[in-house]
Amino acid sequence: MASAREEILARIRNAKVPAAQPVVRGYHREGPGGVELFAERVADYRAVVHVVSNVPEALTSLRGKRIVAPAGVPEEWLIEGVTWLREPLSIEELDQADGVLTGCAVAIADTGTIVLDGGEAQGRRALTLLPDYHVCVVRADQIAASVPEALQRLEPTRPLTFISGPSATSDIELSRVEGVHGPRTLEVLVVDQQ
Amino acid sequence: MARNPVTWLGSPTFPKAAKAALNDTQLRQNLRKATGTIRERRAAAVTEMTDWEQLRVAGEQIKNDVLARLDTLLVELEESVTARGGVVHWARDAEEANLIVLGLCREENANEVVKVKSMATAEIGLNEALEAGGVHAIETDLAELIVQLGNDRPSHILVPAIHRNRSEIREIFQRRMGVEVSDEPADLAEAARVYLREKFLTTKVAISGANFAVADTGSIVVLESEGNGRMCLTLPETLITVMGIEKLVPTWQDLEVFLQLLPRSSTAERMNPYTSVWTGVTPGDGPQKFHLVLIDNGRTATLRDSVGRQALRCIRCSACLNVCPVYERTGGQSYGSVYPGPIGAILTPQLVGDMHDPQAASLPYASSLCGACFEVCPVRIDIPSVLTHLRAEAVEAKGRTAESVAMAAAAWIFAEASRYEKAQKAGSLARFLAKDGRITSLPWPGSKWTSSRDVPAPPAESFRAWWRKNRG
Amino acid sequence: MRVKVALFATCLTDTFFPSTARAVVRLLERLGCSVEFPLDQTCCGQMHFNTGYREQAKPLARKYTDVFQGYDYVVAPSGSCAGMVREIHPTLGTAPPRTFELAEFLVDVLGVTDVGAWFPHRVTYHPTCHSLRMLGVGDKPLALLRAVKGLDLVELPDSTHCCGFGGTFAVKNAETSTAMLADKMRCVLDTGAEVLSAGDNSCLMHIGGGLSRLRAGVRPVHLAEILASTEEDPWRATP
């Protein structure tokens, strides 16, 4: 008897689907982009957004005392008066932390999205999932205008997390409420040097 | 061959099921409110995109390309996933898929697993199969949890508990979770958070579906809102992903189309709160064992049908359900399948693959052919055309019936103007049944019409009779 | 030069609503067209096709092409039947002559929106699904109605929602169809209009049949009859 794999592949070939037309990508690849649009779109998700010029200064208003800081977070972000939790951290420690401070890989102005790829200042995925409060620092030059532009900047084989606002659900009467399993508060600091 | 669990055993035909559902005033109220809300929001989310039509066309074309090259793309996906430390399994049908997943759970000695909402696993009846094998599956999506705790069936692709309102959900939660909670959506969401938190932190095996799989990189993509998906995809040691073979896109770039089409079509957001992408296993981050189960379960049979195969372009957004005037009134359970609404009416009978099944054969008729579904479909599935195509198959399967005899007679009459004119004259005699210019009661099958509508009295003179007299 | 038009009355209008077809003739002739009615015409085959009797629809599609071949324009007072001809007949192996729904023909081909009509009534308009989504007739009927003297046009809430007719759907899924009809009637009654208009007598027969059962006092009148009505020769209810 043929394996399931061989049989399914044979069934597909027997279906004799004709070759498709070439894909026409007539949609926009670019967009207006920019800090202002990004900030506006993030705020639409009921996330907290601040456009700042100095990160350590802005971090003085951090809520919480015990904050996770992934590897690669710049030294000057680790301000005094906060207990910075560093890896290795257990699931329980993450669950009990007050929040997490990260950078990001890319952001998208069109959709108000931040994307984490586990790289510098982001850490493994659990770090930004278990603490109830996520502060994400986005540099102006990390903001892509559109979804196509953002995907082009990303390395697909890294573990990616696209975040658009705090966790939410529309499962009750299809009206959106914020705050389910993921962080209930998302704070985005957009660094604009100008 | 075992029965395909995509339809629920013992479900009545659509008209019968609908008749009962239409009497449920609470259901009618809940659906009217929910679909009305989402319709308006979707329209707004789509209107702000000036390139929406171009995105739809690209989405359609990419998916057509996937269907045309499905064999090579699946092999490519298998290679990329394997190269990154994942294990790929193939399942011809539901039974085979369920056995594979159960075997994997047993290998991990898991008697409890957490699940991310997945249509593929609902379609194959995975939870029931696992339960029979001694493995309890915990649904973690809020709406799935509501259905599971309520011992209910799903009624919507995106929001399986759309037929429940807040006070019904409150009642289910109080009864099954043993907590006091208000009927505020935020409080209900909080209750679910507390209820599931411990499970997320301790369960060793998770099961998910997939929205997309990228053939050339081996990346799997899951879109969600609540963070339950991230929990399942990140914290357990083992991840088992079950997906239909058509969920592919050829390249990473292709995702740029679907990540724009899907959120706006389904939840009417510019972007859903969370999208996770992973490729095989990443050392030090997330599950260190990853299994991908590819299921056919009627898809290759659907692929053979040159008209019907476009249903395989579906990305499960549920926009067609939300705009469908039939779905809005009958609810999803009337369709007797995990795939309700317009897409269900064309996908379910094809996956069942047997138009002699009266329930499956009744589904393509569950539409007034108004076309609202085609208008909103992000991958341009011409649902009305597939509906009429499948109706033709249903008619063929049924053979000779009272209806087919009447239709043949009508066709014979319409074939010649002279016969048609004679029939017109004979029919015009029905005006003597009329009172005050209307007929209020006709014998069967006309009674199906006059049960709720009058018929105008036929005029003494048809238009052609007038024309002949005055212009001929 | 006078535009030569063949009228495709549709079997439903020919048999049950002759006043609509007479109104089309009057209207088109008033606008300078010469109108012919080929007596060999019967039915476009939509009922057969939509119910799953595709094979039986094929000879009817061929017949349509045979009957109307050679005319510059075929005009039908039905979005649904015009849609069947334009969108479906080509899939049944025929190449039908150019066929238009009435409002499209007036606006796109003749280039008129003010047809010189007079209709002093409060009217609401239901855009039928096939005229809207198969043909893309859009706002053309409304533009025509807005130009009618004396007419008080009131917007129909949720106008784009299906009335529940759907051909044999109305009997095969009679209960669901009725539920859709109930909502449509509620919207119509909410407008306070005395006349409900549409470009399809099938949908009008459905909504009108429901309104008649309720003795709601709202009269269904096809768009053609409103546009044909003038001060000299006003619309009147015909038996």
From TrEMBL, chain A:
InterPro entries: FTHF_cligase-like_sf, LUD_dom, NagB/RpiA_transferase-like. Residues 92-191 form the LUD domain. This is Lactate utilization protein C. The lineage of its organism: Bacteria, Bacillati, Actinomycetota, Actinomycetes, Pseudonocardiales. It comes from Lentzea flava. SUPFAM superfamilies: NagB/RpiA/CoA transferase-like.
UniProtKB/TrEMBL annotation, chain B:
It comes from the Bacteria. SUPFAM superfamilies: alpha-helical ferredoxin (SSF46548), NagB/RpiA/CoA transferase-like (SSF100950). Signal peptide: none annotated. Gene3D superfamilies: Alpha-helical ferredoxin, NagB/RpiA/CoA transferase-like. Residues 76-281 form the LUD domain. Residues 311-381 form the 4Fe-4S ferredoxin-type domain. Residues 396-469 form the Lactate utilization protein B C-terminal domain. Keywords: 4Fe-4S, Electron transport, Iron, Iron-sulfur, Metal-binding, Repeat, Transport. This is Iron-sulfur cluster-binding protein.
From TrEMBL, chain C:
Transmembrane segments: none annotated. Residues 5-85, 123-207 form the Cysteine-rich domain. InterPro entries: Cys_rich_dom (IPR004017). It comes from the Bacteria. PANTHER family: LACTATE UTILIZATION PROTEIN A (PTHR30296:SF0), UNCHARACTERIZED PROTEIN YKGE (PTHR30296). This is Fe-S oxidoreductase. It comes from Lentzea flava. The lineage of its organism: Bacteria, Bacillati, Actinomycetota, Actinomycetes, Pseudonocardiales.
